[in-house]
Design brief:
Length: 470
């Protein structure tokens, strides 16, 4: 008998998604040219489920129920095009091919168009949640044509994470929308990770907290308004013992951060639109600066740090850092969601933001209790251009702003790097300023380049012959 679903690429993500599908009653078949991986797939299957591994692509395609539904989980870039090239002669009109990897949405757009000419439905789907999420319930961000989505919807809903019984998957827009939403998800992921690392250094250098105390702080934060996957795993990380020394593992890990590029894509695309996502930009930049290890060590000798001790009672300081993290986390989502709003309009993807925040509530790396707040905000106003304009969000932001200012001021005085917090606050202060100082920039542009300006008191475009005074 034929299989319900096929997977190309049986790395840990591909294998786990397939096993998840099988656990939900679908018969599945996976292809990988590496026979150890096909074997690993079959031996990991839950007894009683229908799971097959093959090392021959054509054999897999032939054994799929028509119209075929298959996903590839291979590294982004050329490997995806290579798989498409080898699949094409084996497919028939109406088949659905899903790219579940972290592809750039412009590649997805190109592939959607190319395969549409051949009557193959190509869907770019963002999958978040790491290996464990893939196995037990990821957050799934599909984009493409609705007809194709209808064919795979039952499977995606079955395997997705559930929040109060609602699956964390929904149709998120046309063409490349799935990968676009996943890209922005990753930008927000970068931002929040940066902010958590700043909270860590502010607590550690500012108040001298050790790993056990840091664990307790993050663990308690995870029980309150900061409840989130990233805060939860951070609490765990402080307790992890190193198996090579007596140290805590976090203390022996190099401070050079890696990246695969999706955070950078978010910033690049935001600049192009344009839309301002400075917390994400800062997060990308900090990973880059983390790579300047030798220069940083030299600079440390040249520029001694001011006294980093925060002269506040520890409990108060922890509360202030908590509030700053809460503030800046809201700002990270606000910037990412504003980008989705703008990108969707610009590229005509029709991304439904109320659905995006619901899908992100469970399974993904940026899941957090805050997404419930944003879900409510979009229930009030589905067209919200920026969640900071929602009254409920505004009252939360207002409740933590004073402590955020205090943390940023202390970080500046103590010379503790906290660019994410600072950037979030700067964006916020510009955003809530009805009349910015950019009138002066317009004057300068007109002065040196006759770039013209608009006036506050009358309509039209003006140019002035500016008087020179020296
Ligand atoms: C997820 C993650 C994941 C991503 C890594 C890579 O949602 O499960 O976003 O898809 O591959 O987090 O990020 P780096 O750029 O930090 O390697």
């Amino acid at each position: 008998s034929l299989y319900d679903f096929g997977m190309i690429g049986l790395g840990v993500m591909g294998r786990n998604l397939l096993l998840n599908m099988a656990d939900h009653g679908f018969s599945v078949i996976g292809f990988d040219k590496d026979a150890t991986k096909t074997g690993a797939l079959e031996s990991a299957a839950t007894p009683g489920t229908t799971v097959k591994g093959v090392a021959d692509l054509a054999a897999m395609v032939q054994q799929l129920e028509r119209p075929r539904k298959l996903m590839m989980l291979v590294p982004a870039g050329q490997p995806v095009d290579d798989v498409i090239a080898s699949l094409l002669p084996l497919l028939e009109p109406g088949d659905v091919v899903i790219d579940g990897g972290n592809s750039h949405y412009t590649d997805t757009l190109r592939r959607v168009k190319y395969l549409r000419e051949k009557n193959i439905h190509f869907m770019g789907i963002g999958v978040s949640g790491g290996e464990k999420g893939a196995r037990t319930g990821p957050s799934i961000m599909p984009g493409g044509d609705l007809e194709a989505y209808a064919k795979v919807k039952p499977m995606l809903e079955a395997i997705a994470a559930k929040v109060n019984g609602t699956p964390c998957v929904a149709y998120l827009g046309k063409e490349g929308a799935g990968h676009y939403v996943k890209m922005v998800h990753n930008g927000i992921e970068y931002a929040i990770m940066q902010l958590i690392s700043e909270a860590y250094t502010l607590l550690k250098k500012g108040a001298g907290l050790d790993n056990d105390q840091l664990h307790k702080v993050f663990d308690s934060w995870n029980k309150g308004s900061l409840q989130s996957f990233l805060v939860e795993i951070t609490a765990d990380i402080f307790l992890q013992k190193d198996d090579k020394t007596n140290a805590r593992l976090v203390d022996v890990i190099s401070d050079k951060a890696g990246s695969k590029g999706t955070g950078k894509w978010t910033s690049q695309d935001a600049m192009e639109l344009p839309v301002a996502v400075p917390v994400i930009d800062t997060a990308v930049a900090m990973r880059t600066i983390s790579g300047y290890k030798d220069q940083r060590l030299a600079a440390e000798q040249l520029y001694p740090a001011p006294d980093a001790t925060i002269h506040l009672n520890t409990e108060q300081w922890i509360q202030q850092v908590h509030d700053a993290l809460y503030f800046a986390t809201i700002l990270s989502y606000a910037q990412g969601l504003a980008m989705l709003n703008e990108g969707s309009r610009e590229l005509q993807m029709e991304i439904p933001l109320p659905e995006v925040v619901k899908v992100w509530r469970g399974g993904c790396i940026i899941r957090s209790t805050l997404l419930e707040v944003f879900t409510q905000a979009y229930q009030q106003n589905t067209e919200l251009a920026n969640i900071l304009l929602d009254k409920g969000v505004a009252s939360l932001v207002t409740s933590v702003i004073a402590n955020t200012r205090s943390v940023v001021a202390h970080a500046a005085n103590a010379g503790i790097p906290a660019a994410g917090f600072m950037s979030a606050l700067s964006y916020f202060d510009a955003f809530r300023t009805g009349r910015m100082a950019t009138n002066l920039i317009q004057a300068q542009r007109d002065y040196f380049g006759a770039h013209t300006y608009q006036r506050t008191d009358m309509a039209g475009t003006f140019h002035t012959e500016w008087e020179h005074h020296n």
